[in-house]
Amino acid sequence: KAGVTQTPRYLIKTRGQQVTLSCSPISGHRSVSWYQQTPGQGLQFLFEYFSETQRNKGNFPGRFSGRQFSNSRSEMNVSTLELGDSALYLCASSLNAGATDTQYFGPGTRLTVL
Amino acid sequence: DAKTTQPNSMESNEEEPVHLPCNHSTISGTDYIHWYRQLPSQGPEYVIHGLTSNVNNRMASLAIAEDRKSSTLILHRATLRDAAVYYCIPVSAGNMLTFGGGTRLMVKP
What we know:
The complex is a heterodimer of chains A (114) and B (109).
Chain A: E1 5-7, E2 10-13, E3 19-24, E4 31-38, E5 42-50, E6 53-57, E7 64-68, E8 74-78, E9 87-94, E10 104-105, E11 109-113
Parallel strand pairs in A: 2-11
Antiparallel strand pairs in A: 1-3, 3-8, 4-5, 4-9, 5-6, 7-8, 9-10, 9-11
Chain B: E1 9-13, E2 18-23, E3 32-38, E4 45-50, E5 55-56, E6 61-64, E7 70-75, E8 84-91, E9 103-108
């Protein structure tokens, strides 16, 4: 079975731009969650989608948004990029909603904001 | 969410057992204890989880204290590939993973 894939793997943007990251979950998984990892804050939960509905949201500003499609693929969008948004963005998929199900992480998208 | 305390770093020799401790004294009675690890330049990967009883799988063993206020992840024979940051995470039903700082395990050949 193919693992979680994320595209692109690397991205460079400038302040004020917006960016869209994509995540394809493991086949059959209906839950996709997103995490941000920075050296200063560590791994922080952004949001979770299950069956195209946002179930949980972390403590991030409204510039961070996401969606899930009927095939369970998910995208996250960051508008009006700031330098502090430079991070590794990880997505994880699982069969069911919530983290009591094993989460399978992708390799991440490394975003650099200049 | 329950708070966890883990050593910042630990060192082990290759082929020796490693015991990674985690304190989670505020855990609720229904929280599962999950362990994930993150190898360099990779996303986290699931290691093991348990509720009350000790658990074994092909990667590791998990020993949970009787009062559930602490747990220990046991790698029976550390290899260089086990060098990673290990996260102990109490998980409540319906909630998501809350990562702490984890323990950076270094394995010496």
